[in-house]
Write a structure and sequence with these properties.
By secondary structure, the protein is an alpha+beta fold. It has helices spanning 39-45, 54-64, 71-84; strands at residues 9-11, 16-20, 25-30, 33-36, 88-90. InterPro entries: PQQD, PqqD_bac, PqqD_sf.
Length: 91
């Protein structure tokens, strides 16, 4: 089964993506806690706005970081993990 890049991710209700100065990193806040994101996850997360498709996110990252091998697959993998962890919804 292949990943549909036309899907649009959005953060689930109660989840908020932001920069946390105390952590010196982007984080995902939710009622039960906080997830510190690595640099790659933060770059992807910063583009999730409920309007951009996965393909649009890949295209934007490709412009910012040209020549990164397997960028599309990395974004797909993030989306799958984020959905499995219930951070995002894909629609």
């Amino acid at each position: 089964m292949s990943f549909d890049r036309n899907q649009t991710p959005r953060w689930r209700h109660g989840y908020r993506y932001q920069y946390e100065p105390a952590q010196k990193a982007h984080v995902l806040l939710y009622p039960e806690g906080m997830i510190k994101l690595n640099e790659s996850a933060a770059a992807i997360g910063g583009l999730i706005n409920g309007a951009r498709s996965v393909q649009a996110i890949i295209d934007e990252l490709d412009q910012r970081y040209p020549g990164v091998p397997e960028l599309g697959e990395d974004v797909e993998q993030f989306m799958e993990v984020a959905r499995a962890q219930h951070w995002i919804e894909l629609g």
